[in-house]
Amino acid sequence: PYFEKLWFLFLLLAGVLVAAGGYYLWLRSLIADPGHRGQFGDAFGAINAVFTGLAFASVIYGIILQRREIKLQQRELADTREVFKQQSFETSYFNLQRVLAETINPIQWRTSNEHELGHRWSTVQGRRALKEIVEAIYAQYAARVEHHERTYAHTDACAQLSYAIQLEWLLETYTTFYKANESLLGNYFRLVYNILKYVSQSNFDPVEKERYSHFFRAQLSEGELTLIVLNAMTSMGTKMRRYLEEFAMLKHATMEGRSIPNAREHFHENAFKDLDERFRGGYTAS
Hints:
Blueprint (H helix, E strand, L loop, with lengths): L5 H25 L3 H9 L2 H60 L3 E8 L2 E8 L1 H25 L11 H18 L1 H19 L5 H13 L3 H11 L5 H9 L28 H6 L6
Antiparallel strand pairs: 1-2
Helix pairs in contact: 3-6, 4-5, 4-8, 5-6, 6-9
């Protein structure tokens, strides 16, 4: 650390001057004849060349050290840019999630509950409202299926609905519901789409992207996942489908126990497999 001090430089220069002055006085007292002193000094010409070479080598070494320091500074700047880029991404990413939460909280839905005096209507809000919305969609779908079965129960016509018809009726029920309640769900789906798109278009590697998508997936309730699945199976959710498959967003989506078509048959298998699972079975791009 002393080499970096200014006073050390002056001390070094003073030492050189003292050494030079001492050498001159010593040589003058040793050899009285000036001509002989010149010849004596010429005998050290080779040493002067050595010191000149050492000085030149020191300059070269200094340049090498300077280049190394510049490279280290450039590397630090690159690392700083990466850290800043990640911090900037995370700020926007979590702000989008905050906006999504603020969009969900005001959503309200009226639902009826069994009571000893009959049905009682109550209003639910937020994620509970999304769950009740899913129940309302399934109730409308189930009512249509039940009406069909009652209608054809005493006829020779086949009352059992085909798989294609079940899917068609389910998506028709959802589409009709969505168009009637677009003000409730439209902004929600647009935000979900933009969050996934933002992660997908980032400059991170696939593992880092999946890590952020898992953070988001972990916050989705069962009702939200079901709505996302239904929306993605219609023409309205075509753009979102690629991101659901890219980030395995439907891994925990379930529709069991509702007698409806299985969503697994309408999405690429990547939608239900994390990145490590895809690599174990041979990665398939969506």
